[in-house]
Structure formats: structure tokens, C-alpha cells
Design goal:
With 328 residues, the chain is an alpha+beta fold. The chain has helices at 17-25, 27-33, 113-117, 127-143, 168-176, 178-185, 265-275, 290-299, and strands spanning 5-13, 37-41, 45-49, 61-66, 70-77, 80-90, 101-110, 158-164, 189-191, 198-201, 211-217, 221-225, 231-239, 242-250, 322-324.
Length: 328
């Protein structure tokens, strides 16, 4: 019998419990920060679906319990019924963000790490990334900040941009110099910063071939091509000491439902911590890089997009899927 995992995420929301509860239970609010479509009529109905939701062609949620501090749902994803619970508690007084609300989210019956690596997890393998981005967007929504573009699970390409409070040269170096990349990303990476050079999550020892730079213009543009022919392009346009970073990811197989397709956006989300005032982009799911996925899961990069590298809690093993995340 295949081992199932439970996801557990925690984040401090910048609002009192009543305000957070309203954002969680108002259909109009949900259509802003969570999903393309949402309908709520508690205690009987709580549904969200659409292109920003894994397995989201139709709503598959059923209310199990609803109160002022707890919402529990049965959510059938790819034919498997999971249980989602969101709990709100007042933040501890001694916490530096006192006055906010601690949001705890759990979801049962997620695929095992082995299933994710073997491409058998299906849409359930995307739920860790889905909820991490959703929690970050909820925090931004409550703070009145610009939201991270949501993952579109129906598109073969993603393009998104973010304005960063740093010059193009600094942003480019943060993406292409291994020492700087490791600081904000929180995982090992080896990079050869030139055309034809390799880019390997986990280092060349784990991934000797890596991705290859096919374009490399310092301060302006870089393009990586992966072994499965997917490409990631970073384009930088500077003005007044700030940089608009545009990320384009393409080459995805629309029929590929593998969960590793949301993984690469995590690095762009984490770039927000040290450099930006607005949220960086979420990404369309990508494809077949097993070694990269293994390293990302082990080091927690897909689990903590709401935190900068300085704020992220030490990761646990993927089978426990428990992370402590402090929202920005």
C-alpha cells in the first residue's frame, strides 16, 4: 500500500482573526486571491475551481465543518478524497508580529515522495505548491499588496513580471552567481555564468549535465534550456534604480500532469524576500527533472514561498510535509 503524506503549513496573517475569516469565506475575496471561480454559502457550500486550481475543471469540495475559527473541507482531487482544514488562532503576544492571526492549514492523503518522483502523483502532487502560493497571496491581499500571478494549470506557457528594488546588474547577479543564488534560495546550486555554462540545482555532483545557458547578457537577459527542452528566460529592464524582471517559461507538454511542473517558480517567489517590495511571479508547472525535484523537495524550496530565505524554517523530510512559514 502506498504511503500517504499530510501537508501542514503555518503562517502569520497581518490581520485579526475576524478579518482573515472574512477573506477565507467571502466568495468575491476568494476570486481575487485564491481561484478563478468561487461560491460560498456556509455551512452548506464552499467551492472553488477554474484554471488556477489543480484538477479544477469543476468544483470538488464539500463542507465538513464551519465555525468562526475553523473550516474543514472534503476535497476530491484526481479521484482521491482529501481533507483540508484551516484553523485561525490569535498570534502569541510575545511574537514579533503580535496582533496578527496564525493560520494553520493541513491537507491529508497527499502522494508520497516516491509517487512524485515516479510521475504517478497527478494533480495531488501540485497541492503543496498551490497552498503555499495561496497563503502568500492571502497575506498580500490582507496587506493591500499586489498579488503573485497565480499558476495557470491549463496553459503551456507562463509569462509574469515583478518590479524589484535593485539595479539590473544586482538582480542579474542574484540569479546567475552561485554564491548569491544560494543566499536567497536556501539550497545548493552550481552555476557557470556564461553561454554554454551549466545551471544545476543540488550542484554538479547530483546533476552533472544541468540546464544550459543558451543566452547570457549580463544585466539584461539570460535563457536556460533544460534537458526536456523546456526553457526559462529572465529579461531585465532597469529604471531609477529599480528593475522589472520578466520571467517566461515555455516548452511544457500540455498533456503532462506531473506535479513537478510548479516547482521552478518557487525560486522567483523567494527572490522577493531580499530584493522586492511587490510579489514575484508564480509559474506554470514544468516537467521531467527528477534530480531537481528531489533536491527542491528535500530543501523545502517549494514549501515556503511566503518566506524569504532568512525567515524560512528548517525543512523536514518531504514525507512529513510540515513547514513553518512566516508570511511577509
Amino acid at each position: 500500500m502506498t504511503e500517504q503524506s499530510e501537508l501542514r503549513l503555518r503562517a502569520v496573517m497581518p490581520a485579526p482573526p475576524e478579518t482573515v475569516h472574512a477573506a477565507l469565506t467571502d466568495a468575491a475575496a476568494l476570486r481575487v486571491w485564491l481561484a478563478e471561480h468561487a461560491e460560498v454559502a456556509l455551512p452548506d457550500r464552499y467551492e472553488f475551481w477554474g484554471r488556477y486550481t489543480p484538477d479544477g475543471a469543476e468544483p470538488h469540495q464539500r463542507v465538513l465543518h464551519a465555525s468562526e475559527r475553523t473550516l474543514r473541507l472534503a476535497w476530491t482531487v484526481d479521484g482521491v478524497e482529501t481533507t483540508v482544514e484551516l484553523t485561525l488562532t490569535e498570534n502569541e503576544p510575545e511574537h514579533e508580529d503580535a496582533g496578527g492571526t496564525l493560520l494553520t492549514l493541513t491537507q491529508t492523503d497527499l502522494p508520497s515522495f516516491a509517487e512524485i518522483l515516479s510521475d504517478t502523483a497527478g494533480p495531488r502532487g501540485e497541492l503543496q505548491t498551490f497552498w503555499s502560493f495561496a497563503i502568500a497571496n492571502l497575506s498580500d491581499y490582507l496587506s493591500g499588496r499586489e498579488l503573485t500571478p497565480k499558476c495557470d494549470y491549463t496553459s503551456p506557457q507562463l509569462q509574469a513580471s515583478v518590479v524589484i528594488d535593485a539595479a539590473p546588474e544586482a538582480v542579474f547577479d542574484s540569479l546567475t552567481q552561485p554564491e548569491q543564488f544560494r543566499k536567497w534560495f536556501g539550497a545548493n546550486v552550481d552555476i557557470e555564468p556564461h553561454v554554454g555554462g551549466r545551471f544545476a540545482m543540488g550542484g554538479f555532483e547530483l546533476d552533472p549535465g544541468g540546464a544550459k545557458f543558451v543566452e547570457f547578457e549580463p544585466g539584461r537577459k539570460a535563457t536556460l534550456r533544460f534537458a526536456d527542452s523546456e526553457t526559462t528566460t529572465w529579461e531585465l529592464d532597469g529604471s531609477d534604480g529599480r528593475t522589472r524582471l520578466t520571467i517566461v517559461q515555455s516548452g511544457f507538454d500540455p498533456s503532462d500532469r506531473s506535479p513537478r511542473r510548479p516547482r521552478r517558480d518557487a525560486q522567483h517567489r523567494r527572490l522577493a524576500g531580499p530584493l522586492t517590495t511587490s510579489s514575484p511571479p508564480a509559474r506554470r508547472p514544468g516537467s521531467q527533472e527528477r534530480r531537481r525535484l528531489a533536491l527542491l523537495e528535500r530543501q523545502g524550496s517549494t514549501m515556503c514561498p511566503a518566506a524569504s530565505s532568512a525567515d524560512a524554517a528548517p525543512p523536514s523530510m518531504p514525507t512529513s510535509s510540515e513547514r513553518g512559514v512566516r508570511a511577509r
